[in-house]
Structure prediction request, 338 residues.
Amino acid sequence: MSIIVDHLTKTFGAHQAVDDVSFDVPGNKLFCVVGPSGCGKSTLLRLIAGLEVPDRGRITLDGENVAGDGLSVPPEARRVGVVFQSYALWPHLTVVQNVAFPYEAQGFSRQDAYRRAADHLSTVALQDYATRRPEALSGGQRQRVALARCLAGEARTILMDEPLANLDPHLRAEMETELRAFHDRSGVTTLFITHDQREAMALADVMAVMDKGRILQIGPPQEIYARPANANVARFIGRGTLIEAIVEDGQARICGQSVPVNGSADGTRTVFIRPAHIQIDNSGWPCAVTSVHYRGSHWEATVQGDGIAAEISIDLPQPVRIGENIQLSFAGGWVLPG
Ligand code: ADP
Ligand code: MG
Prediction:
């Protein structure tokens, strides 16, 4: 149930929507592709589903070549289930009828189809909703019916294109938990696509950061967060500040301070500093607050001061005012490679 994508390229007119993309998703893993709107995520998913034909490159699903070298296996023969942002349920059918539909279409008796559908409804914890129509369900419940129907289609590979984008924030967090549980319970391989890096970090075993049709970095979320491969990944994943600094023997000179940094390379480098590595310190670097946002548990702020052009992102446990003067010390950073 692995997904292997090898040098995949897709052009629309003069636009490279997917540009030489390669990755390998082992079976039973949840792989998230995250990137800004328009970067080519949906095109990538549609190529894997068989809804688009690549210009170049190959796709292998569960060890079987499905696209490339002049071959293009039709979508219905790829055994992939696709869940889009809109749920695409039949409005005139009940929940169980929606899920039984793929079985009935394959010629199972109605009784058999319903029994199998009931199993999948338990997998998504909707067994008590079998006789409802989609209109009588919440957004999250409809999304679960769509998932159950994927399983009924015997999909062992599930492709999801921003399935949570339409949901309220609190429901989205709940659905993240449910999607992860669904993935683990059903034993499928999941490719999940989103523009929301927080969602990707919460769900992924492995995540790929995509921009302008290309993959910028692939790795576990913690690794991408702690050790971004370049400035674009650093800017896209979480908050932090890129600062030019002289690095020597694992120490960067930043605002007159000697800051221990990871990533070994001496010289004038770009150092990436997360808010967690910056504290208020009365003998620290003087700066002025340029923006502040209350986030419930803390305040997110930016500051500016002498010697550094960039606005620096910080988190504070107490409120500050715009224009207020504070002092900061830096406790760590990551030296960007290259
Ligand atoms: P994302 O899902 O990351 O927002 P898409 O894969 O939908 O991005 O689109 C990537 C780029 O390819 C966009 O610039 C989009 O306009 C273009 N594109 C996508 N599908 C088509 C198509 N069928 N014809 C022409 N251009 C397309
Ligand atoms: Mg899209």
